[in-house]
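ok so i was messing around last nite and threw this chain in just to see what happens. nothing serious, just curious
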Amino acid sequence: MNGATEVRAAFVSDSEPERNGVGAYYADLIDQLADRRVDTRFVCPGRSGQKGFSFPLPGDATQRIYLPSPRRLWRALREFRPTVMVVATPGPYGLIASKWAHDKNIPLLIGFHTHYAGVTDLYGKSLLKYFSRGWFRFADRTLFRYGDRVLGNSEDMTELADRLGAKDTRRIGTLVPRAVLRTERRPLGDRFHRVLYAGRLAAEKRLHTVIDAARALPQIEFVMAGDGPLRAEVLRAASELDNLTATGWLTRSQLLEQMDAADALVLPSEVESFGTVALEAMARGRQAVVTSTCGIVDWPALADHLVVFDLDDELADVLKTLADEPVEARRERAEAGCRAAHALNERSLDDWVDLLRDPLGSDA
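result:
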């Protein structure tokens, strides 16, 4: 954004923009803040000259942890002169930046989007599990000690942050990409014939339920988009089932095309702090089918327009029931969900602007 403004918000993340949910969240937020007189700087791998040495994320070689030059990172922040800083991740970027903000007495907001220590419990290699869990517990508590406020996108996350020592917590909404909001939508077809999964190919996503559903419902096409440690398992299933396609990782525009081609998006996760891809599907007029453990269910304005199932339920049964519904009922629910998703995006953007303008205010 050009021109001096009274709010200069620095966003710091260990995630590359749009490579995963956290990176995409802040890329979308920053894009829309440009219309709200908030000057922004995104400091993360691939931005502001930042990259540094990297190594694979333990348990997921498709993502990397970058070790930035502290001096270069501090220089990027010092030159921008932020009035408020938002740290999104508990990695080297986040820890170095939070220490700098604390020392400079700059209001510091911590985004708590994923409980990484909890996710590592789902991985079987004991040494890796205990090392990763110990690191993330240390990192979360360090960020919470430095941070003035911790922001979570579900009640479970804010309650967990309270237990981990956060000074003050607040639930904050989620935004979707500008293209999702403004690109003309394709209407739902008369026949329920295509289901999309989009996200990391990882244990906490319970991908076996999608594969089992594809096996049980050969009349429905299934598409699994994403990358992750379970990629080989998904590719093997795709080679065995004529109605299952694995696309690999997709750009945002490619994902939008897949979403518009689907009748429903499924998110069968065991652990999901929110589930932004489900909100994107709703904003495109598609039915979002999610487990009761997804944080998006905590938002009453959205919950009534979701298809929610429990971890013990069979995804195939849920999808068959949905497919057997009259098309008018599916369209009505999808359109209501679309309106709710667009409304939440505007409210969330308003909340972010208020928060960045008054980060420490009691009613921010």
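not much to say yet. Residues 327-357 form the longest helix (31 residues).
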